[in-house]
């Protein structure tokens, strides 16, 4: 893609927007950034103004003076300025699409999507590749923009991408050498017209693949299996079923007659076994020795805010699962323990039906503590089925769960919601949880 002397309008001043603007400037292009928030709401607005042409407080017709528009993933594709841009035949792409077009052809792309487990899986793939001696970068929805790396240069062997449905909406020429869908469950229903629209967007990850590329699907995921007729690349499955290309059996993962022990793997639980199977399949085309993969499963560092053990206070264990922003991830959390837990739920909703959790909560929850904007909605869903208590303030709900507990109890923050009612992101929510529990005393 030619960048030099071309004009690019970037919609959104978040991480990916600033990153792609910086890359455009490095490559001799002209970047104009448009942000709907006011200047006072942007922490580094002065620095941005000194570096780029920009506007605050709304997306104006100044965006139409560009050759290409790059839309940040958090911004819906139906805003008025984009409709006008389409009328004028101005190309609209994503940061992922832009980065793919400028990357060096030497770099192979491994792309992972799914409703849950993406960050853990891409991080494990990245760890395996690095352990094998490859120069691998980790980018996308995990927090570092694809365009922030020197991707136009030859020395990057692998780009491992975590891709959200938002990032897959504007796929055009992007092609992954290896692409996988971990699972598809109801999520972001506030963004899409239907669950089917959301699922179809996920399948854009296989767009443009050919017979030489690898597609990976979870055989145990009913929704993913419905759309596989659209895949033309080499399709492989992971599952607990021995009929799959890679499958789990007791404390092992079996792949192509090789058995990988997972008894001492750094991550545990049924959902993480699925993540490990996907990761092993994803690196399978690249002739990595089995011993290196086995070693990587043990030496991998689990990610924060994903069933993260925090502390034990007076015999009560606390786990931070702040990344659990939908009902399916809460189900995984509940399945991770052999004894019933005290679970803290709530935040900003995404249109999910919380009643789907009732059978799992009845079996695995000692008590459910509700907080955040979804208190009334969750109370209505759970009342009469499980023991609940509603406390609006985040710190107060944590303290109540603690004072209700006795030696041997487990308290888990697993919200089933986003954090945007009270926090910037799930990381801030998780860190606040950890800070509060570190101060608790009976």
What labels describe this entry?
9-stranded mixed beta sheet; 442 residues; UDP-N-acetylmuramoyl-L-alanine:D-glutamate ligase; 3 domains; 6-stranded mixed beta sheet; Protein-Tyrosine Phosphatase, Chain A; alpha/beta; Rossmann fold
CATH topology tier name of the largest domain? UDP-N-acetylmuramoyl-L-alanine:D-glutamate ligase
Low-confidence stretches: none
Distance between the termini: 62 Å
Mean pLDDT: 95
CATH hierarchy, class of the largest domain: Alpha Beta
* Largest beta-sheet characterization: 9 strands, mixed
- Kindly name the structural category: alpha/beta
- Please tell me what the overall shape is: globular
- Gyration radius (Cα, Å) is 23 Å
Quickly count the helices.
Answer: 14
Q: What oligomeric assembly is this protein in?
A: single chain
Q: Architecture of the largest domain, CATH level 2?
A: 3-Layer(aba) Sandwich
Q: Approximately how much beta-strand content do the residues carry? A: 15-25%
């Amino acid at each position: 893609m030619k960048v030099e002397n071309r004009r690019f309008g970037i919609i959104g001043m978040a991480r990916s927007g600033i990153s792609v603007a910086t890359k455009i400037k490095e490559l001799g292009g002209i970047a104009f950034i448009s942000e709907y928030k006011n200047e006072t709401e942007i922490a580094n607005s002065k620095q941005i103004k000194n570096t780029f042409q920009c506007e605050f407080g709304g997306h104006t017709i100044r965006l139409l003076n560009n050759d290409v528009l790059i839309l940040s993933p958090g911004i819906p594709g139906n805003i008025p300025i984009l409709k006008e841009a389409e009328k004028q035949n101005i190309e609209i792409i994503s940061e992922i699409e832009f980065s793919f077009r400028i990357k060096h052809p030497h770099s192979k792309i491994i792309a992972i999507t799914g409703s849950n487990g993406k960050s853990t899986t891409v991080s494990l793939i990245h760890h395996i590749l690095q352990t094998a001696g490859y120069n691998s970068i980790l980018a996308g929805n995990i927090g570092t923009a694809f365009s922030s790396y020197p991707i136009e240069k030859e020395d990057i062997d692998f780009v491992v991408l975590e891709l959200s449905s938002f990032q897959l909406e504007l796929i055009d020429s992007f092609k992954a050498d290896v692409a996988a869908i971990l699972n598809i469950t109801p999520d972001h229903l506030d963004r899409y017209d239907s669950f089917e629209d959301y699922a179809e967007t996920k399948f854009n990850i296989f767009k443009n693949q050919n017979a030489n590329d690898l597609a990976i699907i979870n055989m145990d995921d009913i929704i993913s299996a419905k759309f596989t007729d659209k895949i033309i690349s080499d399709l492989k499955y992971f599952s607990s079923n021995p009929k799959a290309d890679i499958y789990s059996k007791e404390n092992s993962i079996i792949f192509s007659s090789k058995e990988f022990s997972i008894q001492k793997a750094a991550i545990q639980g049924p959902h993480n076994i699925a993540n490990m199977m996907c990761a092993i399949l994803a690196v399978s085309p690249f002739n990595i020795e089995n011993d290196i993969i086995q070693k990587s499963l043990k030496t991998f560092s689990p990610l924060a805010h994903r069933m993260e053990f925090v502390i034990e206070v007076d015999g009560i264990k606390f786990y931070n699962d702040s990344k659990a922003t939908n009902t399916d991830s809460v189900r995984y959390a509940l399945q991770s323990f052999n004894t019933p837990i005290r679970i803290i739920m709530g935040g900003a909703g995404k249109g999910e039906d919380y009643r789907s959790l009732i059978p799992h909560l009845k079996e695995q929850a000692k008590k459910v503590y509700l907080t955040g904007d979804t208190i009334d909605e969750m109370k209505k869903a759970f009342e009469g089925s499980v023991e609940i208590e509603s406390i609006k303030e985040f710190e107060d709900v944590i303290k109540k769960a603690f004072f209700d507990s006795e030696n041997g109890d487990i308290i888990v923050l697993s919200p089933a919601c986003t954090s945007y009612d009270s926090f910037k992101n799930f990381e801030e929510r998780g860190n606040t949880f950890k800070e509060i529990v570190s101060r608790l005393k009976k």
